[in-house]
Design a protein that fits this description.
By secondary structure, the protein is of the alpha+beta class. Helix 2 packs across helix 3. Strand 4 and strand 5 form a beta hairpin. It folds into 2 domains: 97 residues, no CATH class; 80 residues, no CATH class. It contains 5 helices and 8 strands. The longest helix is centred in the first third of the chain and has 19 residues.
Length: 190
């Protein structure tokens, strides 16, 4: 289970987004908060379509069972680093795991966490869990997000702005250009 510790910003700058919408200087009477809402909603939708974290933020990954005792695919990508690993016992007590006991294999689409030097991952306590705090995302600023994903956010944000509504399925609600831009970043599952 993944939970965000920090709320991410938008994958596009507000001035850049307003320029994309061809709003005059000062956002043409459009409230900056409304534009930011569209940009954040579009960022969240592109993240949902791709399974990626666009803007860096801390996330907490809770594991109750490792699929493989030696390595495990991280359910968010990309991952910049592992901040902390904690074993939480059934009685609520906890112990910090030395970070040298785990190794992160970074990858923009499929990062892996494994035991250091080919060893095992930290054991999950009986009735407990392992919590892994990660820093996930391409970077802290919109400029660090790949250009085609930023463009997808711009197109989808403009669509939200123009339509003033969001349908239940963001993938179907997305204009064709958005789907084409995110296609190479989506994981193919068989």
């Amino acid at each position: 289970m993944m939970r965000e510790i920090e709320t991410p910003g938008s994958a596009v700058g507000l001035a850049e987004f307003a320029a994309h919408l061809r709003l005059p200087e000062g956002f043409g009477g459009e409230a900056p908060g409304a534009l930011e809402t569209y940009a954040r909603a579009a960022t969240a939708a592109v993240e949902a379509m791709t399974g990626l974290a666009l803007i860096s933020r801390r996330v907490l990954w809770t594991v109750t069972r490792w699929g493989n005792g030696r390595c495990q695919r991280v359910p968010v990508a990309p991952v910049e680093r592992v901040n902390a690993v904690t074993r939480v016992f059934a009685d609520g007590s906890w112990e910090a795991v030395d970070l040298s006991a785990v190794w992160l294999r970074p990858d923009d689409l499929r990062p892996m966490l494994s035991g250091a030097r080919g060893g095992a991952l930290p054991a999950v306590p009986t009735g407990g869990r392992v919590e892994v705090e990660l820093l996930a995302g391409f970077g802290a600023t919109p400029e660090s997000v790949p250009a085609e994903l930023r463009q997808a956010v711009m197109l989808l944000g403009a669509h939200y702005h123009e339509q003033r509504h969001v349908t239940a399925d963001p993938e179907r609600a997305a204009p064709y250009g958005v789907a084409a831009l995110v296609a190479r970043w989506r994981e193919v599952r068989l």
